[in-house]
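Handout, page 2. Input:
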Amino acid sequence: MLRVFVLMLLTVSFSTGMALAGDTPSRAGARVYFINLADGDVVQSPVFIQFGLSGMGVAPAGTEREFTGHHHLLINDRLRPNRYNRPLPNNANKDNLPSMLSGLLRSAHLHFGGGQTETTLNFPTGTYTLQLVFADRHHIPHNPPLKSDLITITVE
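Output:
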């Protein structure tokens, strides 16, 4: 019985056009990546981070131009499929990042809606995962989503 219910639910979801990603297309072969950081790096704070992008263009949030978007940095989090068709949250900035990472949440999402392609951030000592996500003018990931590999850095 449960199997029948799940099958019916999936059929209804897909037949009603349930979105699996945002409506803004990404260019085939496009990718987002960290230029100067790699998985396992040990760094000192403040940490300089360069955002890499190939196959698409960077534009400030709100700009409507084909195959463009802006970067988002997820710290101690990752882009999950249930967030592919929703705006990415923005719960931190450069000034409150240390307290965010030391507080209860221990994770942060930073938007670079001005079209920035690099940043310098103060991290408390510790180990962190980082992921870049490229999103459209409404902060919604492209379709298919452009996300970097999840990397781990240690800040000494």
